[in-house]
Amino acid sequence: MNVLAYLIPVSLVLGGLGLLAFWWTLRSDQYDDPEGDSARILRDDYDDYPAETPQSRPKD
Amino acid sequence: MTATDFHNGPSACPGCDATAMATSRAAGTAQDGDRTTTLSLPSIHCAACISTVERGLLAVPGVSSVRVNLTRKRAVVHAAPTVAEDALTSALAALGYDAQLLDEATLTAGQSDTAARDLLMRLGVAGFAMMNVMLLSVAVWSGASDATRDLFHWVSAAIALPTILFSSKPFYVNAWRALRVARLNMDVPITLAIFLAAGMSLFEVAHSGDHAYFDAALSLTFFLLAGRYLDQRTRTVARSAATELAALEAPTALLLDDDTPKTVPVDELSVGDLVLVRPGARMPVDGEIVSGASELDRAFLTGESDPVSAAVGDPVRAGEVNLTGPLHVRVSAVGADTMLHALADLVAVAEEAKSRYNSLADRAAGIYAPAVHLLAFAAFVMWLYLTGGDIRYALNIAVATLIITCPCALGLAVPAVSTVASGALFRHGMLVKHATALERLAEVDAVVFDKTGTLTLGAPELLHGDTIPDLDMALAAKLALASEHPRSRAIAQAAARRTLPEVEVTEIRETPGFGISGQWQGQRVALGRADWVGAEGSGTMLNVEGRGSVAFDFEDALRPGVEPLLQTLEKQGLPVTILSGDTEAHVKRFAGALGLSNWHAGVLPEQKADILTEMAQSGRKVLMVGDGLNDTAALALAHVSIAPASALDAARVAADMVLVAPDVSRIGDAVRIARSARRRILENFGVAACYNAVAIPFAFLGFATPLTAAIAMSTSSIIVSLNALRTR
């Protein structure tokens, strides 16, 4: 039964990570335009090079 | 914490940190000092539209970033202050998209995104906690015992208790609000069930009991929050769309101070001010014409489709549209004193009547809440008696009864259906403004239409244009091109469809309120009012010196979809009546062409309201469709009402639904969807009732365990949600 000592915290941490990810998506307005987002994935505008946004600029 | 913390890019403007994240994902990069403009794009619908609009707007010099929101059919544009807003709309018009500027102030004032987001966060936390506790519960149900079970129960308690405090806040706050004024609402049994379950479970765990209902309390919270969130989102979408309509027409006037017109908000005008009303503009206030001559379109106020001429000394009313010449108007009444607002009292009375409408959910809750409490209490008393005073056991059964009967399915039954139905209506171009509008629409058994602007476009169309000789048509078209008058435009349009001889007309001059004249081969040609051009008869005439005159007849153009709509309504068994303020001749011709026998012409606004009241008193549930000020009272009095998006502000406010699509046949679809939604809601109530009929005796007799509660609750919620998806 000692395995419970690991497994319970592990399951809680994993669940917590999911919750944190959800919190991040919520804070970053990812549910603002569900229809637009599902349409945008089909565009080929940025297939060759990424859009020039602050987020997609090279990090280094 | 604001969204800006997530990226290092420059925020578009200091005032809109909330939208900064969206901006950073936009096409292009926002520059400091840019101005934010919001455009409404009612016609976008696909990925290609997004690309076209974003690329098209970025091509306008000075625009630094564009982000299209397809869900809301809007585009947010960041551009240098030097970029004219007209440049943006005309760039889009060139691409084939209608775009309208939205008033930023009106938009932000009506935003309730935060409430929906707050609910979503609580829902997410409840979902996380529910899954984790369920995981531990499954272990207990499969046979964990003694110390292991107690450990699992304690861990469950540690997750469940804070979650319940956080996630069920919307319920206990609402329940408390109701209890404080000594009322019961749906939230009272919910709160009681959640808190009793949690408290009872905690007590059991502390005493190493067998059963803990943490998972049940959490799934209850989760499912009910889901229902609440759907409800909120549906209303937010409708409300933001409604504020968007309001933002479309920023109420301004051109104040004439030292002869230079200055744009001021209508609120700032006072009686005695002089305002300039340009051709094509709407009268912002009531007043009197002090200089200029023109023609006025009174369709919004009276339903008349023919323009009326206006000259110095004539009174004008807010809402009339100036057609030809610029007018200087001395303000005689502003704001609440204008004709436009005179009907506001009637509307307010009717609004109150509508808010008293008892929705299906309310009626269900009214029966449900006391029943659940009585049952749980009866279970408690019965088991107290049977066990000879074992409070703990009796309370356990009472809590089980409360949990198992708790309105999971009931809480989802209505919101799930109305979300699906509102979504379907939105795709059909209809906005549901009022919470109970769908239910009321489903009950409708008669339809009343206004004519001008509702079944017709409110724009004239040339009648029998083909019988006019080529030369006359060519001359008329040449003259018509010089004017913005709706009839001139109709002539120009009709001429463009024909091949006409080239004619040269010089010295073209428009005489506001009368017509247009010019010189052709040394002769005077004039197009305009019969008496002005020098011809016999009435209406619009073309007179060519030495050639005689030709009459141009006009008819109000039909809105697209009128005929299919009437067919659909007939199939649905809804009798149609037309109430129009227009002249008898016009209405008769119109009704005859459509095969309608039930029409009233020359109806005054008060008469419209009276007819509606009469119909209601004879037990009819009337759907009123209208767009003008003369319809406002009738719209408010009808059982349910629809206004087209082109309607006057007051009419849109009074209506329960707004038809955004130009095609009126969507009204037939709306009735069908509403009826289907009502059926689904009733079915869902049936499912909930069946479920309770089985579950209550179970719980009452003490056979309910946390496992059966979890299974029963989830199944009924899933059945209800799936059934909602059948709404179409």
TrEMBL record, chain A:
<keyword id="KW-0812">Transmembrane</keyword>
<protein>
    <submittedName>
        <fullName>Cbb3-type cytochrome oxidase assembly protein CcoS</fullName>
    </submittedName>
</protein>
<dbReference type="Pfam" id="PF03597">
    <property type="entry name" value="FixS"/>
</dbReference>
<feature type="region of interest" description="Disordered">
    <location>
        <begin position="33"/>
        <end position="60"/>
    </location>
</feature>
<dbReference type="InterPro" id="IPR004714">
    <property type="entry name" value="Cyt_oxidase_maturation_cbb3"/>
</dbReference>
<keyword id="KW-1133">Transmembrane helix</keyword>
<keyword id="KW-0472">Membrane</keyword>
<feature type="transmembrane region" description="Helical">
    <location>
        <begin position="6"/>
        <end position="26"/>
    </location>
</feature>
Automatic annotation (TrEMBL), chain B:
<keyword id="KW-0406">Ion transport</keyword>
<dbReference type="Pfam" id="PF00122">
    <property type="entry name" value="E1-E2_ATPase"/>
</dbReference>
<keyword id="KW-1133">Transmembrane helix</keyword>
<dbReference type="GO" id="GO:0005886">
    <property type="term" value="C:plasma membrane"/>
</dbReference>
<keyword id="KW-0460">Magnesium</keyword>
<feature type="transmembrane region" description="Helical">
    <location>
        <begin position="707"/>
        <end position="725"/>
    </location>
</feature>
<dbReference type="InterPro" id="IPR023298">
    <property type="entry name" value="ATPase_P-typ_TM_dom_sf"/>
</dbReference>
<dbReference type="InterPro" id="IPR001757">
    <property type="entry name" value="P_typ_ATPase"/>
</dbReference>
<keyword id="KW-1278">Translocase</keyword>
<feature type="transmembrane region" description="Helical">
    <location>
        <begin position="119"/>
        <end position="139"/>
    </location>
</feature>
<keyword id="KW-0479">Metal-binding</keyword>
<dbReference type="InterPro" id="IPR018303">
    <property type="entry name" value="ATPase_P-typ_P_site"/>
</dbReference>
<keyword id="KW-0547">Nucleotide-binding</keyword>
<dbReference type="GO" id="GO:0005507">
    <property type="term" value="F:copper ion binding"/>
</dbReference>
<keyword id="KW-0597">Phosphoprotein</keyword>
<dbReference type="InterPro" id="IPR036163">
    <property type="entry name" value="HMA_dom_sf"/>
</dbReference>
<dbReference type="InterPro" id="IPR008250">
    <property type="entry name" value="ATPase_P-typ_transduc_dom_A_sf"/>
</dbReference>
<feature type="transmembrane region" description="Helical">
    <location>
        <begin position="151"/>
        <end position="172"/>
    </location>
</feature>
<keyword id="KW-0067">ATP-binding</keyword>
<dbReference type="Pfam" id="PF00403">
    <property type="entry name" value="HMA"/>
</dbReference>
<feature type="transmembrane region" description="Helical">
    <location>
        <begin position="364"/>
        <end position="385"/>
    </location>
</feature>
<feature type="transmembrane region" description="Helical">
    <location>
        <begin position="681"/>
        <end position="701"/>
    </location>
</feature>
